[in-house]
UniProtKB/TrEMBL annotation:
Keywords associated with the record: Aminotransferase, Pyridoxal phosphate, Transferase
UniProt protein name: Methionine aminotransferase
NCBIfam families recorded: PRK09082.1
Residue ranges of domain Aminotransferase class I/classII large in the record: 10-359
GO molecular function, one term: transaminase activity
Cofactor dependence: pyridoxal 5'-phosphate
Database matches in InterPro entries: Aminotransferase_I/II_large, Kynurenine-oxoglutarate_AT, PyrdxlP-dep_Trfase, PyrdxlP-dep_Trfase_major, PyrdxlP-dep_Trfase_small
Cited CDD domains: AAT_like
UniProt cross-references to SUPFAM superfamilies, sorted A to Z: PLP-dependent transferases
Bilayer-crossing regions: none
Length: 363
């Protein structure tokens, strides 16, 4: 869709990246690190001072203390963290439960390692999770469950009750939980992010993947991290070392200083909720229907009041005829189930959102 947006000179609200600049202070810190000579390989697990800052951050937010030496690894974006976590533990014949719609790297990575994705579709247009279905799907072959909260592409979140139910399901098993929490700081309406790190019965078996790129508006820097108990992290690091060895050194140095000010990430919920509210207010008189996103920087819009064509065709027509790119949600679902929904990224300048809304209101 981004390629199509470029081909047709369309406004791009499809791919998940901001079109505004990262903080100049953070860019200056990278330059400072380069000028101070931090331009060679860092330790493969990441520089210790950054791992220490991450440990402090997680403890302050979720009450869980991870050992910086043995339980935290800096990765080339959250996607590499996800790849290493799956590759470290999933072998031929293992089953991995994937909740659909799902981020599109989970299943290929499972298959590359000989595993079998076992798909569970979230229910209805608001994508509710049926825990009884999860419970009945777990069996002796289940090696891993992957969750994502706040959730891409739907903008939904898992509640404390959800996490406690998951904890019950896993309590008598050896199943590993892989938790994709890259949007942890983008959560709205005074809701609280329920990290698996907050729940002892989950954290003891969990790998949590996070992203500096999603948090600090610089997805192209490809810097993230994962945390896990030492017994799990030991295996993840074996894959990480052979995949990328280490991650961009000056950017790691910059994040060390930047994380010392908690407002850099604690203020993001208000920042993005303002953008969500602006976007929804601008289209309130359109023929789209919606439930406001609870997290991430994505908003689903239902177009059934406009056309009965499928979401892929409508998304393509929206680009070619109207100059606006989005993502058809069916591509994330089991059997490409079509709920007449498109995903729009609102991590854009106000001017971009206004121009996009003007197009949407004319449909």
């Amino acid at each position: 869709m981004s390629k199509m947006a470029n081909d047709y000179n369309a406004i791009n609200l499809s791919q998940g990246f901001p079109n505004f600049e990262t903080d100049q202070k953070l860019k200056d810190l990278v330059t400072k690190a380069m000028n101070e000579g931090y331009n060679q390989y860092p330790p493969d697990s990441g520089i210790k001072v950054l791992r220490e800052e991450i440990s402090k951050k997680i403890k302050s937010l979720y009450g869980k203390e991870y050992n910086p030496d043995s339980e935290i690894t800096i990765t080339s974006g959250a996607t590499e963290a996800l790849y290493c976590a799956i590759t470290a533990f999933v072998n031929k014949g293992d089953e991995v439960i994937v909740l659909k719609p799902a981020y599109d790297t989970y299943e290929p990575t499972i298959k590359i390692n000989g595993g079998k994705p076992v798909q569970i579709q979230l229910k209805g247009e608001n994508y509710k999770l049926d825990w009884d279905e999860v419970r009945s799907t777990v069996n002796s072959k289940t090696r891993m469950i992957i969750i994502n909260t706040p959730h891409n592409p739907t903008g939904t979140i898992l509640s404390q009750e959800d996490m406690l139910e998951l904890q019950k399901i896993l309590s008598e098993t050896n199943i590993i939980l892989l938790s994709d929490e890259v949007y942890e700081h983008l959560i709205f309406d005074k809701e609280q992010h329920q990290s698996v790190s907050k729940f002892p019965g989950l954290s003891e078996r969990s790998i949590v993947c996070a992203s500096f790129g999603k948090t600090f508006h610089n997805t192209g820097w490809k810097t993230g991290y994962c945390v896990a108990p030492e017994k799990l992290m030991k295996e993840i690091r074996k894959i990480h070392e052979l995949t990328v060895f280490s991650v961009n050194h000056p950017m790691q140095r910059a994040y060390v200083d930047y994380l010392k000010d908690p407002s850099t990430y604690l203020d993001l919920s208000n920042f993005y909720q303002t953008k969500r509210d602006l976007f929804l207010n601008l289209i309130k008189d359109s023929k789209f229907s919606y439930t406001p996103s609870k997290g991430t920087y994505y908003q689903l819009l239902n177009f059934s009041g406009i056309t009965d064509e499928n979401d892929v065709n409508f998304a393509e027509r929206l680009v070619k005829q109207h100059g606006l790119a989005s993502i058809p949600v069916s591509k994330f679902n089991i059997n490409e189930k079509d709920n007449s929904q498109l995903r729009f990224c609102f991590a854009k300048t106000d001017d971009t959102l206004e121009k996009a809304a003007e197009i949407l209101c004319k449909l």
